[in-house]
Amino acid sequence: MTQTRPAIKLSQAQIEVMKVLWQHDKLSVSEVHQLLNQHKPLALTTVATMLKRLQEKGVIGYEKDGRQYLYQAQVSEAEVRSSMLGSLLQQLFDGEPEALVHHLVDQETVSEDDLLKIKALLDQEVRRD
Question: What are phi and psi for residue 109, nearest 5 degrees?
Fold first, then answer.
């Protein structure tokens, strides 16, 4: 019997931290802080709190290196996307992928070029089956 991981729910700020960790192997709190501050100023304590909460959610891990902790992602970007999109699909579209796709293509903000790319992806998937 396989155990399924609970749905991953991350805030936008937590996703930004995860992006930093996906791009690097292992980072200290101060290194994560420096990288995040290139885009948005945050206090070091805020970054430390976010890392603690991500660790409590089981999406990052850490190891002790001397007097500091080095953090690393425990889940891939694809796993987070899949989990969060699955939750969105269930919550907003009653688990119906076609309702999600219909909503996306019905938006005026989707360009004709994007629609052609989506169609090509769908055609490729149909051919694979």
Answer: -80, -10
